[in-house]
Amino acid sequence: MSSKTILSLHTLPVEMVYRILDNLNLSTIFWSLETVCQRLNAILDSYDRYKTLRSLDFTENGISDEGAQSLAIALKHNTTCTTLDLSHRRFRNVEVRLLADALQCSTTLITLSLEYSNIGDEDIKHISRALEKNRILTTLNLEYNRIGTEGIILMLNMLQENTVRSV
């Protein structure tokens, strides 16, 4: 009778997980491994490369719908990243809604750049509602988007209520 050892994430030694993480880039760790399970979150919290993650630059990165969902989930649970650059990306309305939803919950993101990202007045409605609740984000770059008079008025109204940030 042979005894087989069944390995799972719950029984895998932390050092082995670290060796796996050493072969992944930080954006993959951020997008794919955040919030998978409590054990993996605890391992990530103690992983040196991840603990120092402060900035992610996805400029001109073609993020899929699934990628946008993963990013939104990761941002909700993010404890390290303070700067996120999503410039030069043609966001669709559904992706902006996911991002805005994540911004409502974000407790660490201080700077967000969305320049040249196809953001319009409808998108600004979602972003301004999110920023009414978010008191952490201090800098939001919306240069070179499709924001019209309606969007500008929405952002100005939000800024009157919340003087923490600069747009």
UniProtKB/TrEMBL annotation:
Domain of life: Eukaryota
Keywords from the named record: Repeat
Gene3D superfamilies named among the record's database cross-references: Ribonuclease Inhibitor
Pfam family, one: LRR_6
InterPro entries: F-box_dom, Leu-rich_rpt, LRR-containing_regulator, LRR_dom_sf
F-box domain ranges (all copies): 6-53
Official protein name in the record: F-box domain-containing protein
Organism for this UniProt entry: Adineta steineri
Native organism taxonomy: Eukaryota, Metazoa, Spiralia, Gnathifera, Rotifera
